[in-house]
């Protein structure tokens, strides 16, 4: 780990100032404070495998999905949020593992898409919720992906709504900086098929990404790691040229093993991707969406709700059919 960081520092020192990475909001590196990533013992895949030991699909799902370190998503279903995040990172910390968390409760969540609509009841309610989220983590090491789709989902929003959303995200980042000094926060930046790199760089900057450790790509999507790496590098070129800094990025590889067929909502024929690890063309490759969890009432998940675990989908995703 130390050699990787030294090599990165040497490479950055050779770059022009405009393209040098902006300093992280935190001096601490949570990947060096822990011994590997935390596998959620209560993930939807883990619960299903434990409840269905006699099912012929269970061994494959348990081996290939349920025991892979994957993010836990937090929203209105999580109860008292500071208690929930505190318990989760506490359990990981007790095992000297690095937990992955997703904050998914922004006001007017999925406002234009609708499959995952919901979120906090108002901007002030969100500000309170995210402050408690960060406070629950406190000084323990963690990685947080902040509000998937929030910067890609502008198509039906007014400028006032966009400004309001960007203000909520900026406020959220300030809370993590204030309360969670050993957390790396990645502000979500959609995926390469959604918004061009120049536009996304502007949205990230206006939402305060300079305060974040970095940005996340491909959450709950299927585009290849190579496509996402090229896009992340393009976003960084725009950040550097326009604003004088760049940021690390992570890629959700949980369902991109076969790439995309052009559909985003429960497409058939997809495959699990590279398990959670450091590097791989990005700062980290992460499983952020649990393979087998539905995107909504669509595609091969017809009749399901967003987030529902579908064992047949997970099973087929292991083998790519």
Automatic annotation (TrEMBL):
Molecular function, one GO term: hydrolase activity
Annotated signal peptide: 1-27
Matching PROSITE patterns: GLYCOSYL_HYDROL_F6_2
One Pfam family hit: Glyco_hydro_6
Keywords: Carbohydrate metabolism, Cellulose degradation, Disulfide bond, Glycosidase, Hydrolase, Polysaccharide degradation, Signal
InterPro entries reported for this sequence: Beta_cellobiohydrolase, Beta_cellobiohydrolase_sf, Glyco_hydro_6_CS
Catalytic residues of the enzyme: 149 (proton donor)
Enzyme Commission identifier(s): 3.2.1.-
Family assignment from sequence similarity: Belongs to the glycosyl hydrolase family 6.
UniProt-recorded name of the protein: Glucanase
């Amino acid at each position: 780990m130390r050699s990787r960081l030294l090599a990165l520092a040497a490479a950055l020192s050779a770059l022009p100032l405009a393209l040098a990475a902006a300093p992280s909001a935190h001096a601490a590196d949570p990947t060096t404070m822990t011994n590997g990533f935390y596998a959620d013992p209560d993930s939807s895949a883990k619960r299903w495998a434990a409840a269905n030991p006699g099912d012929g699909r269970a061994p494959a799902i348990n081996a290939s999905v349920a025991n892979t370190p994957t993010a836990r998503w937090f929203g209105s279903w999580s109860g008292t949020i500071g208690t929930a995040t505190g318990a989760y990172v506490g359990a990981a910390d007790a095992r000297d593992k690095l937990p992955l968390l997703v904050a998914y409760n922004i006001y007017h969540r999925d406002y234009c898409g609708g499959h995952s609509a919901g979120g906090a009841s108002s901007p002030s309610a969100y500000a309170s919720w995210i402050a408690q989220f960060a406070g629950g983590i406190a000084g323990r090491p963690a990685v947080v992906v902040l509000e998937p789709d929030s910067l890609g989902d502008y198509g039906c929003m007014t400028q006032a709504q966009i400004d309001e959303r960007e203000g909520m995200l900026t406020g959220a980042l300030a809370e993590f900086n204030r309360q969670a000094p050993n957390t790396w926060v990645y502000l979500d930046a959609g995926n390469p098929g959604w918004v061009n790199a120049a536009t996304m760089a502007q949205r990230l900057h206006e939402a305060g990404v300079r305060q974040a450790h970095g940005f996340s790509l491909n959450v709950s999507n299927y585009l290849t790691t190579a496509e996402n790496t090229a896009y992340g590098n393009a976003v960084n070129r725009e950040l550097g040229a326009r604003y004088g800094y760049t940021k690390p990025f992570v890629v959700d590889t949980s369902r991109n093993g076969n790439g995309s067929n052009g559909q985003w909502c429960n497409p058939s024929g997809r495959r699990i991707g590279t398990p959670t690890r450091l590097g791989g063309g990005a700062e980290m490759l992460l499983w952020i969406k649990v393979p087998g969890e539905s995107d909504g009432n669509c595609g091969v998940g017809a009749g399901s709700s967003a987030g529902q675990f579908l064992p047949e989908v997970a099973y087929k995703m292991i083998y790519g059919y």
